[in-house]
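Need a sequence for this fold. Nothing fancy.
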């Protein structure tokens, strides 16, 4: 190949690379189209109807009465503030891709022409291959992941704001419309009173002053009635805006105000307040932002250490092939990035201060809301008592009128007093409802926020669930037999996989897509827990040992010995307790204090346990041999209930939906059982493939993934908390039942065992669309 041919080949390669680049697609905004789309929004939109039905709210016609729940779902479907928050979340998720991108190599072509000898052309080619050092890419990814989490919590916080505004406007409409009704009744009573006073004036029984006073009072009521009508019209317009609709779409709509006609007398206890203080969306978002500043500081510290540039080159010098090797390193002698480190440290300090200030503000909001609600309740109760008393007096007055003991004017006065008291009671009730709204906003506990998905429901494909798609395979050729459970190190991009039959724990580099290390000397390793704050790995083994290893060096530090096989592990980060499923000929749930790695308790069970879930003060434990779920009270350290699993036997894997209080149990014969986690009542069951060994609830997509040893990954859609549908199946491999869902990565990991000519491997499935 001559010089020209080689040069042309290089140009062709570059052209091929550029051809794979993303192309720009113009999406112009049109003022007219946007306006017409907004005006066309309707409560009769068929896609809205499907969305409402999917979330448990159905209306028979556009004129049906709409309550707070239904209108909240409408707002979640239409409101533009949520579209903005979703777009910001999409941008934050895209930044994770940007953070993970590696720097591209560069190529330099330096042809030269020599006139002194032939051939005259000298072809030069140089490469620059950058290599990042000190884990800079990992810190960028960690920062992007934390910012993505912050954006997700911002979406939830925005949904609360949307719901809060909608509740306020719906309450204002209720108060205005009810005031109109009471004021019309009052106007009728006063009109009758004026007529009676005028008749008595003609008879000389009253003075003109009395008639004038009654007329003035009537006119005041009429002006108040006009104000109430204006307030009702304004509230209806504001309600349309709060729901993301045009005012015209609500013109003939009836509303159900039952949510506002009474207020609960119960106040949240201290535990509920602490939970709000720890779990509000804005607090969790601020925590994620602080974690991002931590990663940013680590990145700036890593920038002290220069990257490496490899510079290989080639030159065709008048038929002589010349190769060069080069290495370029920036010398950090004038600038060691101290300014960037100081700025990042200051941002971390600022973020910590903002978090503390936010918690203080939330605590004040909660206490003020509780105090305000308590005072409003007393006023509402007093107004209700006064109304009851006046109603009794009115009935007495009616009897006295029938007996001729009082006049019609006196009866009208009693009627007027009752309507005035009813207006006062309405005002007190509205104030109490306002206080209740503030309390709900402070606690952020009730509501239908599960309808707030990351993808806009207006653009989502109706009725479709995204099936996981295979994106990566990591061969594990030295692993013999099958696997048990696995855990992930998000920051270090590592996955720890127990090879039960191989008596090893495999450490996989997820970023490189390869096996990084093998931890030997295990004994049928069953379950693994990784605790980054402790730099530890806990591995449950078939010989009853829970081996404790350093998560960086993998040095065996100590063992926690149980009487028989240690199977499943769960860790509570708040109490620093490790829970261990124990037993082979018996069953128990062991509790370990991770600060000392000492067994502090062993709770007896009916038989050996399989998977279990922690939920506050309770633990739900699958006991397949007894075909029930044992409910363990952590405070009493005993079993307080057993719930039979009626759908099928061999209830082994388990997952929990904490928002809707649902337990998902995979049963060996091919059933997914759904139980109410507050009562143990059977809610639903869905047919799946046999040999389920992994069940994972995806709260974002509202579906359940089940890995089945029969050779499939089944997906079950959560229509609502009580209804579930089989959504699809991905064919995997025989015996591939061990799996792990990592919501932060939007990925599901599946271990494929070595059997029947199949080499062991780890498969990575993406939960994102193509």
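Here you go.
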């Amino acid at each position: 190949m001559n010089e020209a041919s080689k040069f042309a080949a290089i140009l062709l390669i570059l052209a091929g690379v550029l051809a794979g680049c993303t192309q720009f697609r113009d999406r112009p905004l049109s003022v007219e189209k946007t306006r017409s789309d907004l005006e066309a929004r309707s409560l009769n939109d068929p896609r809205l109807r499907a969305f409402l039905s999917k979330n448990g709210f159905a209306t028979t016609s556009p004129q049906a009465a709409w309550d707070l729940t239904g209108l909240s779902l409408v707002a979640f479907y239409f409101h533009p503030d949520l579209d903005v928050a979703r777009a910001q979340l999409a941008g934050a998720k895209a930044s994770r891709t940007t953070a993970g991108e590696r720097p591209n190599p560069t190529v330099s072509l330096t042809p030269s022409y020599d006139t002194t000898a032939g051939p005259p052309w000298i072809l030069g080619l140089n490469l620059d291959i950058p290599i990042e050092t000190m884990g800079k890419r990992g810190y960028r990814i960690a920062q992007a992941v934390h910012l993505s989490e912050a954006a997700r919590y911002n979406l939830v916080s925005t949904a609360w704001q949307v719901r809060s505004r909608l509740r306020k406007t719906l309450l204002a409409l209720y108060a205005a419309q009810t005031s109109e009704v009471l004021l019309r009744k009052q106007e009728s009573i006063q009109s009758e009173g004026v007529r009676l006073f005028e008749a008595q004036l003609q008879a000389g029984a009253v003075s003109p002053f009395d008639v004038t006073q009654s007329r003035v009072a009537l006119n005041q009521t009429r002006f108040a009635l006009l104000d109430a009508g204006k307030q009702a019209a304004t509230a209806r317009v504001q309600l349309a805006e709060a729901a993301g609709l045009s005012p015209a779409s609500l013109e003939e709509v009836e509303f159900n105000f039952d949510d506002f006609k009474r207020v609960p007398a119960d106040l949240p206890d201290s535990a509920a307040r602490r939970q709000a203080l720890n779990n509000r969306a804005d607090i969790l978002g601020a925590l994620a932002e602080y974690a991002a500043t931590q990663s940013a500081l680590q990145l700036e510290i890593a920038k002290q250490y220069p990257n490496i540039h490899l510079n290989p080159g080639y030159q065709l010098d008048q038929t002589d092939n010349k190769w060069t090797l080069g290495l370029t390193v920036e010398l950090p002698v004038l600038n060691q990035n101290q300014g960037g480190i100081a700025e990042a440290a200051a941002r971390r300090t600022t973020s910590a201060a903002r978090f503390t200030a936010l918690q203080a503000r939330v605590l004040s909001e909660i206490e003020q809301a509780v105090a305000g609600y308590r005072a409003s309740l007393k006023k509402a109760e007093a107004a209700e008592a006064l109304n009851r008393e006046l109603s009794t007096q009115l009935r007495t007055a009616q009897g006295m009128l029938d007996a001729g003991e009082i006049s019609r004017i006196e009866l009208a006065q009693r009627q007027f007093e009752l309507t005035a008291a009813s207006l006062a009671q309405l005002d007190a009730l509205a104030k109490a409802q306002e206080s209740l709204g503030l309390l709900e906003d402070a606690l952020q506990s009730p509501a239908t926020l599960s309808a707030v998905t990351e993808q806009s429901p207006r653009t989502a494909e109706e009725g479709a669930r995204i099936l996981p798609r295979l994106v990566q395979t990591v061969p594990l050729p030295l692993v013999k037999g099958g696997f048990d459970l696995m855990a992930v190190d998000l920051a270090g991009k590592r996955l720890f996989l127990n090879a039960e039959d191989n008596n090893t724990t495999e450490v996989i580099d997820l970023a490189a897509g390869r096996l990084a290390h093998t931890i030997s000397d295990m004994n049928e390793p069953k379950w693994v827990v990784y605790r980054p704050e402790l730099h530890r790995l806990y591995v449950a083994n078939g010989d009853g040992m829970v081996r404790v290893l350093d998560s960086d060096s993998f040095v065996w530090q100590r063992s926690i010995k149980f009487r028989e096989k240690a199977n499943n592990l769960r860790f509570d980060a708040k109490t620093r307790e490790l829970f261990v499923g124990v037993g082979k000929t018996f069953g128990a749930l062991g509790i370990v204090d991770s600060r000392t790695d000492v067994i502090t308790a062993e709770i007896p069970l009916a038989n050996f346990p399989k998977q279990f879930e922690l939920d506050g003060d309770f633990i739900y434990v699958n006991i397949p041999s007894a075909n029930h779920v044992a409910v363990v009270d952590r405070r009493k350290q005993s079993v307080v209930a057993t719930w039979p699993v009626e759908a099928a036997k061999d209830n082994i894997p388990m997952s929990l939906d904490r928002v809707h209080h649902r337990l998902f149990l995979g049963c060996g014969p091919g059933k997914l059982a759904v139980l109410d986690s507050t009562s143990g009542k059977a809610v639903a069951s869905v047919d799946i493939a046999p040999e389920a060994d992994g069940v994972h609830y995806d709260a974002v997509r509202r579906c359940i993934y089940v890995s089945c040893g029969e050779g499939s990954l089944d997906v079950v859609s959560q229509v609502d908390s009580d209804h579930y549908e089989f959504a699809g199946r991905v064919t995997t491999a025989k015996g591939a039942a061990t799996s792990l869902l990592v919501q932060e990565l939007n990925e599901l990991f599946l271990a494929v065992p070595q059997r029947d000519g199949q080499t062991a491997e780890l498969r990575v499935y993406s939960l994102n669309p193509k």
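For context: The CA atoms of residues 86 and 454 lie 6 Å apart.
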